[in-house]
Amino acid sequence: MPIRVAVIGAGSWGTTIAALACTNAPTILWARQPALAAEINDGNRNSTYLSGFDLPPALEATASLEEAASSADVLVMGVPSHGMRDTLTKLAPCVRPWVPVVSLAKGLEQGSHLRMTEVIAEELPGHPVGALTGPNLAKEILSGHAAATVVAFTDDHIAGELQRIFATNLFRVYTHHDVIGCEVAGALKNVVAIASGMADGLGTGDNTRAAVITRGLAELARLGLAMGGELVTFAGLAGMGDLIATCISQQSRNRYVGEQLGRGRTLDEITAEMKMVAEGIKTSSVVVELADRYEVDMPIAREVYGVVHEGRLAVEAYRGLLRREVGHELQGMV
């Protein structure tokens, strides 16, 4: 029998992953809105999040969590971090035992500070849990451009099976064992992307942006190591790869938020016009709390937090960074 895949969440990335998976395995996509599920089934389109892109005719959609989850051999969670636990609670009675669960969300839970695989493990105990993460911009992948990602599971056999399900000729999937490092990198890079966007909005040069990205990488590596990740992970697709894509792409929601903040707009104005979530907004507060808990120096993250949550101006944040004393480049990592 073929492995059946259920993707929960019909945003841009959830829909893209479902479109990739359905070329290798029967796949059903859960959409919260019945009208969107009907559009995917009847017209092979998701005009809400991926306007102008045709989806594979083999992709099925449903607005019923029970229908999506009950027959799944692999469950893929594509909902934002703030909605993860609630969605898991609703679908838990429908999921068969031991079904592997893959998180697509790049965020941390507020209050608990948990990674998404930890939230899944609490709500679906006994299920193998991992993450799929990397420099993956949905519209570029659906346009047919080459891309690469990692599927991170502590079980190599499960990772290998999932590698086969998600891979296509142009979408290369690498396996990884460091779930902690991959998840921390994916969540924290959104905060750095806001900082990179602020540099763009302020009109600074490429030298400044390069400095923000590389020093941001140092921050997320320091915290990732303190939380149990491996240093080499942050030099790979889940770390540097995803960080670069999110910090420089015009498609990046987090970079866009930072750019608009740099231009003097308020956060309420920016988010009011956005259809999708910029995870870095909420993650920035969790990161600062984690930095305090693990006693890790994270000046860029703190300045982003100050702009996003305390009303500081982006130009003040950059002036604050320039006033800091400098030490060894690898401080906290060796």
How are the elements arranged and paired?
Layout: E1 5-8, H1 12-21, E2 27-30, H2 34-43, E3 60-62, H3 65-70, E4 74-77, H4 81-91, E5 101-103, H5 116-123, E6 129-133, H6 138-142, E7 147-152, H7 156-166, E8 171-176, H8 179-202, H9 206-226, H10 237-248, H11 253-262, H12 267-272, H13 279-294, H14 299-310, H15 314-322
Parallel strand pairs: 1-2, 1-4, 2-3, 4-5, 5-6, 7-8
Antiparallel strand pairs: 6-7
Helix pairs in contact: 4-5, 8-9, 8-10, 8-11, 8-13, 8-14, 13-14, 14-15
Q: Can you give the helix content as a percent range?
A: 40-55%
Please indicate the count of domains.
2
Shape: globular
CATH topology of the largest domain: Rossmann fold
Helix segment tally: 15
The averaged pLDDT comes out at 93
In terms of per-residue confidence, which ranges show pLDDT below 50 for 5 or more consecutive residues? none
As a percent range, the share of strand residues is 5-15%
CATH superfamily heading of the largest domain: NAD(P)-binding Rossmann-like Domain
Biggest sheet record:
8 strands, mixed
Quickly name the level 1 CATH class of the largest domain: Alpha Beta
